[in-house]
């Protein structure tokens, strides 16, 4: 049986400034949820990893954050 321990998302934007804006929106939501992603930003690319260390894998908070990220990515 394969256990999924994280959700990985990659967002490409038009510029570094747009990537920074994306990260800022995610950061504000992360603060509200008290659930902070791991991420890497290189110019216009943002790679986000969601996992819950306390439970050793995915939690509902990861799913909720992933849905938020999908929503803002698709609406832009």
Automatic annotation (TrEMBL):
CDD domains: PCD_DCoH_subfamily_b (cd00914). Belongs to the pterin-4-alpha-carbinolamine dehydratase family. It holds the Pfam family Pterin_4a. Keywords: Lyase, Tetrahydrobiopterin biosynthesis. PANTHER family: PTERIN-4-ALPHA-CARBINOLAMINE DEHYDRATASE, PTERIN-4-ALPHA-CARBINOLAMINE DEHYDRATASE 2. The lineage of its organism: Eukaryota, Metazoa, Chordata, Craniata, Vertebrata. Gene3D superfamilies: Transcriptional coactivator/pterin dehydratase (3.30.1360.20). The keyword Lyase applies. This is 4a-hydroxytetrahydrobiopterin dehydratase. Signal peptide: none annotated. It catalyses: (4aS,6R)-4a-hydroxy-L-erythro-5,6,7,8-tetrahydrobiopterin = (6R)-L-erythro-6,7-dihydrobiopterin + H2O. Coiled coil: none annotated. One of its GO terms (molecular function) is 4-alpha-hydroxytetrahydrobiopterin dehydratase activity. Its EC number is 4.2.1.96. GO terms for biological process: tetrahydrobiopterin biosynthetic process. It comes from Knipowitschia caucasica (Caucasian dwarf goby).
């Amino acid at each position: 049986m394969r256990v999924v321990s994280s959700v990985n998302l990659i967002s490409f934007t038009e510029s570094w400034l747009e990537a920074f804006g994306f990260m800022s929106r995610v950061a504000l939501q992360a603060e509200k949820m008290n659930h902070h992603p791991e991420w890497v930003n290189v110019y216009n690319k943002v790679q986000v990893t969601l996992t819950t260390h306390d439970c050793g894998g995915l939690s509902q908070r990861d799913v909720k954050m992933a849905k938020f990220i999908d929503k803002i990515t698709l609406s832009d």
